[in-house]
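Suppose a classmate hands you a notebook page containing two proteins, each written out with its sequence and a corresponding row of structure tokens. How would you begin to make sense of it? This section walks through that situation. The first entry is reproduced here exactly as it would appear on such a page.
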Amino acid sequence: MDKVLLFTLCVLFLSCVESCTFLPVMDVNVSKTINRGDQVAKVEFKDCDMNSLHLQSADPDFTITVNGEIIALNPVAVGGTRRTFFVLVQLDVGLKSVKVNLMFSLLQEEQETNKGILKRFKRRWSPPPFNILENDLGPYPKDIEEITSDSAATHNVYYTFSGPGFDEHPVGVFTLHRETGMLTVHKPVDREEFPSFTLITNVYDRRTHEKTDDALPIIIIVDDVNDNAPTFSDSLQITTLEQSNAGTVVGKVNATDRDQEGTSHVKIRYTLLDGLDRFSINSETGVITTVTNSLDREVKDKYLVTVQIKDMDGAVNGLSNTGTATITLADINDNPPTFTKALYEANVKENEVDKLVLRIPVEDKDLINTPNWVSKFIITKGNENGHFRIDTDPKTNEGLLYLTKAINYEKTQNVNLEILARNVAELTGTSAKWQTVPVAVAVSNIDEGPEFTAPTIRFNVKENTPNGTLIGSYTAVDPETKSSQGITYYKISDPGSWINVDKNTGELRVANTIDRESHFVQDGTYNLTMKAVDASSKTGTGTVIIVVEDVNDNMPKLPSSELALCEKEGQFGSVLVVAEDKDQSPFSSPFIFSLPPDHDGKWTVTKYNDTTATLSQVKDLPTGIYEVPVDVKDLQGFGQKQVAKVRICQCREGVCLAKDTSSSLGPLALLAMLLPLVLLLLLALLLIFFCVTKKEKMEFEDVGDSGGILLKSNTEAPGEEVDSSLITVPTLGVDSGVKDSFKGSMGNTGWQGNKTSSIMGVMDNGIYKSGVVTNNVQDYYSTQYDNQYGTQQFNGGQFVGGGVDFDSRYFTQNSGFHHLWQTNGRYLQQKLVSLGTEDERYADDIIHSYKFEGVGSAAGSVGCCSNHGDSDNLDFLNTIGPKFKNLAEVCKKT
């Protein structure tokens, strides 16, 4: 750009010595259609060195020769009346241009189409697009073309226009002369920013200011000049594998150019300026390839090559740019790890374990911390006894040789190992092989403790062997001297204290009874751990395994639990009897089952399998428990008579029913059966007590409702159920005219009376309740009992009363009963008052003003015996012996 500016200044001020001249504008008359190969015009140069000139057409449809001839490369139709393009002239001092206007005359067209007949041509208000050269150096302002409307022939007109380049961005590039219509450009224009402009032109009458013609769009095209050098569009970082074959594609360079597409201004050519001994580049595509197969990352891992990109298809006058492409070589595993020494040596002490013996360094030229570099070590020889292992240090990549199993110096003084080093990844691109190295390990001797003749020793001993019996001896020797001199022996563990060890000789003798069936014996063996101590107090240990041989010291046993035999109507049942013998074969099963000669004939026994027999019922037997004697012997005939307990019962799904249905009765059941008799005896004693009590006339005080304690049924809670047949109710004689004097019933097992009377007394939880009479018996009971004791009920075995109804005739004819009633009633009232003042537990059982809780109160009885619990539970009946079975069955049916 500096050269172009300098050249322009030289031309303007005639201060340069350049003498080459040519016409800056050429108007050429052409036909409407230009054929390919037609010479359109010729640029005339004066005083110019034609060898130093470089000519180029800005229009791809035309080319220019070195002598200035403009030739059509393609058929061209001249649109409108003109077509404009530029020819660029590159001089030594800069770039200049020639504007070529291809003019097409309408008159000529008329002549061509009308066989030479001449007609007057009227200029139309539709000019073709105008062309300006981008970044033209001027001078400015520069006239482009004069616009004339057809209406100017009949009107005195003026012109206006608007649009981008005038009153819109970019403002001030163009102007249109108001009077003449001359279009003028005032500054350079960058085509890459504004490739064209469209301005709207209007024509008006100067007097009326009305439009005299339609609005005209004026198109101004900015012709491209090669003012932009190509640039790289992508990063120039490229990676390829080392040792690649020649011709391998490395990568691609991409470039762009801002100039007009489809022209030579954007046709880029790629060139490598260096690195040609290793790489090449396709000049059209920018693809880089290798030209050798010797690229070695370990020699050089990165190459910097200079790439040039030049437009105009690489022409001399093309604009260019350069960039540095970085080609990085990726690693392959073409180098095995190598050892730094030809031989490694190490020392270990005998009996040492879990010790790091040696570090083995290796070198690898491949990329660090990759599978091509990380080493793996393998012991290929000398480790047949498994004394060593080798690992890899993840930080240093060294081999770590460990001693994992103790070495006995007396057996091995030297160990020769061979260790191979390889990588995680396989070798590629090389003929090299994995390497190995020898490792010599020397074993040092140390003073060791005594060693038993074998780590373990086994002895077979029969169980129940007598105490003091010699089993054998277990001795040790000094590894250095091979002698047992001065060694003493001790027990470390003897779980059952079955063995004694001789301190000086190592002899083993039985100390206690050896029992094969003991829990100390596992899988028929008993283990004893011994310790040998030499004169320097060094020790060695060993294990004695005693194989306990079985003897027939156990007889078969029957289970002590009951065997359930389900009762089936119309058929006899059977059960399986399983025997167990702790001995092993041949002192155990198969067992022999039989019944003793004196059996009762109610059962038979048959063999089911080696350890089980079937015990079958052969007679009809009632439910209950039976003890059946059975002889059981092992295979050697060792056994005795035993008892099998069989329960015959009613079953449900093979299981005896709950025991509360048992027919056996126990002591508690007998007590429950005698309890009603005891109650009757107490009632008789109470009646006698009433009869001998001093008579005294007393009256009841009507205190209303007792608040829930003295209930109207004369009972507070459920009482004991008493068979009505055990209670004798006295009958009072009355005539037929007397109405029913007493009505009552006892629920479930209660009693009823018709035209009878009895003293009203009930034992309820041990508390006695009774009514009290006065002299006016008829009035008192006709009111008090009718109102208070109309109906009382105790459901579920409780007392049910239908009320008490008295009649004066009844008491007139039965004065003895009347007198007894008055005497007892008077006594009870005195007794109640007396009990209320006594400081004893009976004072809590008389009438108190407790609030009535209603039927079914959750509080229950508040009597003295409420804390005695429920005495109605009859579960104890299940434990009553078989002697009461028949009695229980009879009571149950009743």
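The notebook's second entry, a different protein, reads as follows.
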Amino acid sequence: MGSMFRSEEMALCQLFIQPEAAYNSVSELGECGCAQFRDLNTDVNAFQRKFVNQVRRCDELERKLRYIEAELRRDNVAVPESLAEAPKAPNARETIELENILEKTENEVLELSQNAVNLKSNYLELCELKHVLEKAAAFFTEQEGVNGTDSLTQALINEDVGSQSVTIRGRLGFVAGVVTRERVPAFERMLWRISRGNVFLRQTDLQEPLRDPSTGNDIHKTVFVAFFQGEQLKSRVKKVCVGFHASLYHCPSVYSERQEILAGVQTRIEDLNLVLNQTHDHKHRVLQNVASQLHTWMVMVRKMKAVYHTLNMFNMDVTKKCLIGECWVPTRDLASVQKALAEGGRTSGSSIPSFLNVIETPENPPTFNRTNKFTRGFQILIDSYGVASYREVNPGLYTVITFPFLFAVMFGDVGHGIIMTAFGAFMVLQEKKFAKKKLSEIWTIIFGGRYIILLMGLFSMYTGMIYNDMFSKSLNLFGSSWKASYNYSTVMENGELTLNPSDTKIYTSAPYPFGLDPVWQVATNKIIFLNSYKMKLSIIFGVIHMVFGISLSVINHLHFQRTMKIFMEFLPQILFLLLLFAYMVVMMFIKWVLYDPTGSTKYSPGCAPSVLILFINMMLFKSTPPQEGCDEFMFEGQGQLQMALVLVALLCIPVMLFGAPLLHLVSSRRSAVYASGNGDVSPDVELQQLPTEPAGPAAGAPDDHGAELSELLIYQGIHTVEYVLSTVSHTASYLRLWALSLAHAQLSEVLWSMVLHMGLSWDSYVGGVVLFVAFGAWAMFTIAILVLMEGLSAFLHTLRLHWVEFMSKFYVGLGYPFQPFSFKSILETTEEPTEEE
């Protein structure tokens, strides 16, 4: 958890590796996953780097693997998704063996596939010829002759059996074939146009689709016979058939000849079916043997390619006997990197060991916050706003608690919290099962935030108990502090009755053990009471949250040795917030404590002043006349105290505005005197100057050491005005806690009264049916509207409160993430695109 508080210390390391041990060493570093390499060959073209040929070999192996995988999917052969233990990157000998295996496997699968396509093409032609012979009889005649010759041919034919087109009396001929069904209308129109209506076309659709031999898709075709007259028209008809990719087949006009050919075709189809089945079984067995090794081969090739890509970032020394690389490494993992280098040298058999050298650099290191499966989701929320600057305070640690709590303030309901907790607990308990599945993009995001959802549900149950709200109904766990002293007739004759809290017989004055008294659920002024209660709570939580955010800036100032910033920025900022808005929170507590129904007239509820009116009058230096018998203020001397608080708060503004520029001016002059040797000034003055990195949320701040005083004044003025105005706007922004909480409770009550209560108002057996339907509608609307839509709305508002209102007080977020060379992350990112292909 220490690295969650602040990013880990990073070291820029220089690696010196022998060429023969470079591959194995980088492979071990990829398994370790704790080094982010820098490209030392940025001026070298990608095709001119040292290991470009090895990368091309890996690309060729990937192509072969993709082809084999495509064949596996085409034949519906199951591929194991993952392995118990991923293999390491292959060495030189294993690479050659892998290339030979993949070459042999690809050729075998390619040959089997090509043979299967050829056999399927022959099968398709035979099926088409069979359909042409069967359908052609209906095109020639409607009645068969006695001697087996068609009546049409008896009248007209002078046949030439050996030719595809039959010449009849008057030079009449025909062609028969098969064309794709969607091309038939255009085919018919084209024949009509080229012949000017002198082609007679007969056609019929095939009921069963045929299978495309290449793709395996179903294709619908139509059998046709085109009758024409003359050799010139015959040539045109054939050209049209070729243009529309129609298949022409020999079809005799004599019935006996068609039957003879049909019998031979059916025999060949049966034999071809047997051969096709045997070919498919053999190919399936080959692919099954390949499927068990496919994932292993893919992992090995991807690791090998990643290693060579990383080696292309290395630089060769002048003697060309050593590879030099630079990488960022967390200081805690330096021993792991040295161990990986030693292991790589040992496995490669190198006699000269590789070594690591930590070098100094003025560059800003990457930011690395070590997380686990619980804190990763919260850290992603912070990094979505901006990666923390190097060694800056990380808000992710505090977000683990503050995020679900502020969400629960808006989503407080025991019932809805139980639903969300159950969903989050289900994903947490089944996380190993879900982690192995290929989820959609949305479900991947939801599964990544499973612990956030679980905590949001648990906190919602807690705040629901505080509000005493469960599906818009209260839980009477501890009874009630209120008792009705009216008799039965009075209660029955009056629609509304007032309970006097000053009467000890009605109100015991004892605080409720936990949460709200359930009697408020039936009170007519429930909305007025909860309105005031939740609004004050939202302001209290908001001020505490902002004070905590400003306090975290002190840790940044101390760590970066910006001591004077504590006095010139932090103190005036925290005083401005405490003297104004924290004082308003104090007035809320004073009002809750002092004013009581059993107290004197001066401190009765009717004399309680409005905290908002008091705050406005304090800021405007005005007063409001109180009611008769009441005081304007809550205690003696409050008016003078408020005036002093406002004056001190106003004095904080010029300190924020001119403090940093004047400090910079004085320190610059002292540094100049010290540099010229005309004065004895301590070098510690350098620590008092403004930092080189920006210390506020506004990007683009001028460099504090080289900026002109006027530019620094402009920047500081913008920063001061932004802080003063944002203090007011951010405090008001926390009222969204009150607004969404009230809206959530009212929506829940509307669903109860207008949907579920309708089923409870019926009698007899009809009421059971109505209640069953009403409960289904109520449950559906509860999950869809109150849990999903309201939950998403509360989540987004909570995210805004953290990104803007909380983190802007101390967080810069100008860093860049630490992205180490890790086989695990590479395989995770490349696996999904492969699946989509």
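A careful reader of the second entry would note: Confidence is low (pLDDT under 50) at residues 142-170, 678-707, 833-837.
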